[in-house]
Amino acid sequence: MIYQRVALIGLGLIASSMFWAMKRRGVAGHVTGYARSAETRETARRIGLCDTVCDRLADAVRDADLVVLAVPVGAMEVVAREIAPHLKPGATLTDVGSVKQSVIDAVGPHVPEGVHFVPAHPMAGTEHSGPESGFATLFDNRWTLIVPEGADEDAVARLEAYWQALGANTERMDVAHHDLVCAVVSHIPHLIAYTMVGVADDLGRVSDQEVVKFSAAGFRDFTRIAASDPTMWRDVFLTNKEATIEILGRFTEELFALQRAIRQGDGDHLFDYFTRTRAIRRGIIEAGQDTDEPNFGRGKAAG
Amino acid sequence: MIYQRVALIGLGLIASSMFWAMKRRGVAGHVTGYARSAETRETARRIGLCDTVCDRLADAVRDADLVVLAVPVGAMEVVAREIAPHLKPGATLTDVGSVKQSVIDAVGPHVPEGVHFVPAHPMAGTEHSGPESGFATLFDNRWTLIVPEGADEDAVARLEAYWQALGANTERMDVAHHDLVCAVVSHIPHLIAYTMVGVADDLGRVSDQEVVKFSAAGFRDFTRIAASDPTMWRDVFLTNKEATIEILGRFTEELFALQRAIRQGDGDHLFDYFTRTRAIRRGIIEAGQDTDEPNFGRGKAAG
Q: In chain A, what residues touch B74 (CB-CB under 8 Å)?
């Protein structure tokens, strides 16, 4: 057992997966949970998510050795302010937000003396959301980034041990680098996927029905991440503005270069570019971060 | 049996899948195959791909009732010119190219009197290529677009029956619409995926190793289609220039609108956009064109 009492604030995909992963290996003694919506709390009680589901934030965090903020990034400050007076001295406060500078700015000022604030970010997810979307293996062999920013070393090491007990690998990173890396591997891919799906949906000359029917030709891969939780992603882009816009600039620059190659009929440029990108795919397969089965192993009939 | 003798020209993912799908249901009596590369022909013989593997194009197509051009779009003209004198009167000539106007322009002029040219395009594939990448179920429940362009009705209907026997649904489409639809559901998604992977690979401040390790946060979905055959995709973009550039224009327009919303902090715009795109994903699941399993059902441990 890593922590005696853990409080999960926000009961969506990440928190519910954390709960099932904790139960799988006895990582915590007792887990309380809180969600703002009464409906979510009701669902959590029905499916046995958390040992105790609390109707009030203060009750959830009182006595907790680890408090996990698993709410959208834009809601972190309000929650931090409300729980601050109720945190136990010596407790660790962490979060699972996809952006770190903004969370540190929002939460940091509210952290009481004697509470260890250790921001973290599990790099895992699915396109589903809500309290019923979680599962115990979500973090297995994935990476959780820890952004200590000067926090107490014992508290940081314990949070790392906790995430490893949930199945994840951990790596420490400074905050600016975290936000840039995530812009590259997560935020911009999501934005681009949303954009591509929006374009297809919006095109008068090609019907939605055609887009759906013929999606197996490539388009459907984009729709998975474009089905992710809109509130979470709105907050990510509002709070990781700088890195997002930097990477977006690089992306459009490259895209324009390829567009020019197409317009000019520069086949060598296209061929070289398309060859180079295969190596990254191989790296991901070899690192165990994806399957080599055709079409992600969707099943042969799904082709 | 739909055709007595079928010739497959080019023995990559599509042709090899066609062969196994033909064998699964006895769709053809005898299948000959030809590939330009001696190594590919050798592999085909070793794995039993085709009833007869021919070392010369003319031998493969002679006596065939159906000749399938399954070579990159840029190679269609050379092949068509070479086989033309050897085609059997009354035979059907078809192709599986991802672009249709350009194939019609390249192949059409070489089609002898008495041979029926019926362009087609199976909208299915995987990120793997070559003679060993094919499998019998690739076309099951996928769509093959038929672009008759005035071809003999009996020949068209027979080719439709053939594709249906391979497991596909078929739909007729005119050539310009075909090339536009494919730009939306396939060509631009591939170009964007290639670009995103290229940007990540090229970014000095984020290492390739980081990109690979943390790819489960979204990026890895893009890498599948960016690992597709570079020759095939080079030819697609060189030959579907007009539709590609039109859709690319729409894409960058939308992307710039989202970028502006991010810069201006317009959360409502982002939220509404991200909500709308979920509906398309639902449509694709309901149409049986993708799985609703989290992460494409990559397997729970792969998260």
A: 267
* Residue B144 scores a pLDDT above 80: yes
Q: Which of B126, B277, B299 sits opposite A197 (nearest CB)?
A: B277
Mean pLDDT of chain A: 95
Question: Residue A14 has which token pair?
Answer: 């990440």
Residue A169 backbone zone (phi > 0: left; psi -120 to 50: alpha; other: beta): beta
Residue-wise pLDDT tens digits, A149-179: 999 999 999 999 999 999 999 999 999 999 9
pTM for the complete prediction? Answer: 0.92
Encode pLDDT of A143-156 as tens digits: 999 999 999 999 99
Q: What is the pLDDT of residue A279?
A: 87
Q: Do B189 and A221 count as a contact with CB atoms less than 8 A apart?
A: yes
* Alpha-carbon distance values, B250 to B189, B253, B257 (Å): 13, 5, 11
CB-side neighbour CA atoms (13 Å) of B137:
9
How far apart, in whole angstroms, are the C-alpha atoms of residue A137 and residue A152? 29
| Contact (Cβ atoms closer than 8 angstroms) between residue B287 and residue A286 | no
With beta carbons under 8 A apart, name residues in chain A contacting B98.
217
Of B241, B274, B302, the CB nearest to A234: B274
Report CB contact under 8 Å: B241, A250: no
Q: Which amino acid is residue B35, in one-letter code? A: A
Contacts of B233 in chain A (CB under 8 A): 270, 274
Report, as an integer, the average pLDDT of B152-179: 98
